[in-house]
Amino acid sequence: MAESYTSVRGQAYAPGTSRLIAAELKRNGVEILLCDAAGEILTRGAPIDHETGPAGRDVLSFADGMRFETTDREGLRALGVIAQDGWLARLEGWHPRLALVVVVCVLGAIAIWRWGLDLLVSLAILATPAPLITSMDRGNMLMIDRTMAEDSGLSLERQAEVREIFTTLSAVAPEAPYGAYRLEFRAIDDMGPNAFALPGGTIVVTDALVEQFGDEDILAGVLGHEMAHISERHSLRQLYRSLSVYVLIGMMAGDVGPVLEDLILDGGVVLSLAYSRAHERVADDVGVRTAEAAGYDGTALAGFFEELDRRYGGIGPEWMSTHPDSAERAARIREMQ
Ligand SMILES: [Zn+2]
Predict the structure, then answer these.
(1) β-pairing verdict for 182-187 and 150-151
(2) How far is the CA of 242 from the centre of ligand 1 (A)?
(3) How far from the centroid of its chain's Cα atoms is residue 326's Cα?
(4) Other C-beta atoms within 10 Å of 180: how many?
(5) What is the pLDDT of residues 132-187, one digit of tens each?
(6) CA 95 / ligand 1 centre spacing (Å)
(7) pLDDT tens digit sequence for 45-60
(8) Between 216-231 and 277-293, two packed helices, what is the crossing angle to 10 degrees?
(9) How crowded is residue 48: how many other Cβ atoms within 10 Å of its Cβ?
(10) Structure letter (DSSP) for residue 192
(11) Largest distance between two CA atoms of the chain
């Protein structure tokens, strides 16, 4: 019976030669081995091609060009290197290259499903005119000033000190994609000690942040972090991910459309988006590196997170809800050193 086969005898020839040598095809566990009469291994691995040669011989080709021919078709079936009779036999007609095409198509479909939206978002960002993105910042600032912010109560002197840190950082930070970084001070009671970035390059710092965390290393870490959200286009990505695929495809065709314009210029939308954890990690890393390149102590950001955690325990100001995992992030920042 077929089960009794452990090896198949036949003849092998190396690529580019016609000299036949006695050979044996064996299975060792899951591995197929082709050996010469002395038991030396000629090649290993499953054959990549099978054809039926003259006089009913079966010819197997291996990846390295080695070929093996035999008249023992039953033996090949028992070894599992060619298909069994019946419906499986039809698979013999399948060319390995066809199988490869099928595998590539399946992988392609998985890739589109897995990364298609990211790709669409990136293309839509490229297709968005820069002036539209800077006007997003203006729309947001108008909305913020109308609904939640008061003029900053910080002294001009204090503002100038923070602005100096900001200017030093801007010089070494990754380039802002839509014009220079801009710094705005506001008193926003609902936000506590906080800072946030708008996609076009505007960074808003609350009075409470400067008053409660006035240390220049902490401010440098926070500002560097917000610059990274801008340079990496994080809020644009989040905004565009929230749109439908049809709108994104329309944008790539150059049709920004009234729906999108409303959405982009209506300030509330950008503020309502939360960054993903992956975005926060990137912003922490880039922010710490930026602060250090400007001569500040990047690890101060870790202390800031721990202090926020201690004071607000994760349920306080917006920073905590949009910037989760303070303890874990603090640990990561310390590990960067
Ligand atoms: Zn952040």
Answers:
(1) antiparallel
(2) 18
(3) 22
(4) 8
(5) 888 888 888 988 899 889 999 999 999 999 999 999 999 999 999 998 999 999 99
(6) 52
(7) 888 888 887 677 888 9
(8) 130
(9) 14
(10) -
(11) 98
Domains assigned to the chain = 2-89 (2.30.29), 112-335 (no CATH)
Write phi, then psi, for 152 (nearest 5 degrees). Answer: -65, 140
Q: Is 188 buried (19+), middle (13-18) or exposed (0-12) by CB count in 10 A?
A: buried
Rounded distance between C-alpha atoms, residue 221 and residue 304, angstroms: 9
User: In terms of C-beta density within 10 A (0-12 exposed, 13-18 middle, 19 or more buried), how is residue 93 classed?
Assistant: exposed
| Rounded-to-integer distance, Cα 204 and Cα 194, Å | 8
Residue ranges near ligand 1 (ion) with Cβ within 5 Å: 280, 283
Region of residue 273 (phi > 0: left; psi between -120 and 50: alpha; otherwise: beta): beta
Q: Residue 156 Cα, ligand 1 centroid: separation in angstroms?
A: 27
Rounded to the nearest angstrom, the distance between the alpha carbon of 195 and the centre of ligand 1 is 9
Please provide residue 209's backbone torsions phi and psi, each rounded to the nearest 5 degrees: -65, -50
Taking the C-alpha atoms of residue 191 and residue 148, their distance in angstroms, rounded to an integer, is: 9
Name 74's Cβ contacts closer than 8 Å, sequence gap at least 6.
2, 5
Tell which residue, 243, 223, 249, 260, has the closest CA to residue 133.
260
Are the beta carbons of 240 and 289 closer than 8 angstroms?
no
- Rounded to an integer, what distance in angstroms lies between the CA atom of residue 59 and that of residue 187? 81
Confidence of residue 266 (pLDDT cuts 50, 70, 90): low
